[in-house]
Structure formats: C-alpha cells, structure tokens
Design goal:
- The chain is an all-alpha fold and 161 residues long.
- It has helices at residues 3-16, 24-30, 56-64, 80-89, 94-111, 127-136, 138-147, 151-158.
- The protein has one domain (3-158).
- Helix 1 (3-16) packs antiparallel against helix 3 (56-64), helix 4 (80-89) runs antiparallel to helix 5 (94-111) and helix 7 runs antiparallel to helix 8.
- 30% of the residues are buried.
Length: 161
C-alpha cells in the first residue's frame, strides 16, 4: 500500500466515527505531551495552530497529502504523537498504545518537558524514544503496511504483533 491508501483510511475512519473517543495521539497533545512547536505547528514562522484544536488526522493528511503515491516511511518520523496516531489507526493493541504513551509521559515528566515548547526532535536519539518505537513496533508496522494489498490484510497481520 502507499500513502494514498493510508490517507483514504484516515478519511474513512473520520466519516465513520465522528463521535469516536479521542485518539490517544490527540490526548497526548491536549495533555501537554509530544511535539508542541515547529514542523506542522509552524505557520508563517509562528505557532499559529491552536494545540487544543489540532488533530493528528489533519497532521497526517496535511503532511502526506502531497506524498500520496509514495510508499510509507513512517519509521523515520520523530513526532511521538504522529507515530501514536499511525499505530492506532493501523490497529495496534491498546496495551501497546498505552505503554508507548506512558514512555513519552515518563520521559517528559522526568525531564520537566510537559507543556513546554518541543520540536519533533526533542526525543530523537534518546533511549526513551527507541523504547517508544519498539513498543509500537513501528518498523514491523511499516513493513506490514507497505507489503499488504488491502487494509484488511494489514489489520490481520498487525493484530498478531
């Protein structure tokens, strides 16, 4: 599958679940964890995006919308909440999502980073980020998404992770 199929899945999930509970990734942002400046949050050189209103669905669609024909390379992402979102829409078990989110929270709390300005690189190179990605099994997840022909096929394999 390519990014277009992932974008279409996100749009489908949005239309099917307008009353769905909040994604863990969006909860992360609202609770003051994860990237809070730069990248997708940086508009015209200033943080013009209200963190209370941003969703990781819009973050993904904005970033990958012009890369629709390319294959996923999400294992290289540095933004914790976007990685959480991708794992969540791909069907990673709630226990893994919660454990990964706990790693982010523990790291930020220990470093005094909650509710501070953090770009996407703030965890890069840290053991906590490696543990976070391992908990989400990002490399396996991306491999499955790339090799699967349909979402049903991908979800079946991801469920076994």
């Amino acid at each position: 599958m390519n990014n277009a199929v992932v974008c279409d899945r996100i749009l489908q999930l949005q239309s099917e679940h307008s009353t769905r509970k909040m994604y863990v990734a969006d909860q992360c942002v609202k609770e003051g964890y994860g990237q809070s400046c730069g990248g997708y949050l940086n508009r015209s050189g200033e943080n013009a995006v209200d963190l209370r209103n941003i969703t990781q669905a819009s973050h993904f669609l904005d970033y990958y919308g012009d890369k629709r024909e390319k294959v996923p390379t999400y294992q290289y992402l540095r933004c914790p909440q976007l990685l959480l979102f991708i794992a969540e829409i791909a069907g990673v078990a709630d226990t893994h999502l919660s454990a990964a989110y706990r790693i982010v929270k523990d790291y930020e709390n220990a470093e005094g980073l909650r509710f501070t300005k953090k770009n996407a690189n703030y965890m890069w190179g840290k053991q906590a980020f490696r543990n976070f990605k391992l908990e989400l099994q990002i490399n396996n997840l991306v491999r499955i998404i790339r090799k699967s022909k349909t979402w049903d096929e991908a979800l079946e394999q991801i469920e076994k992770l």
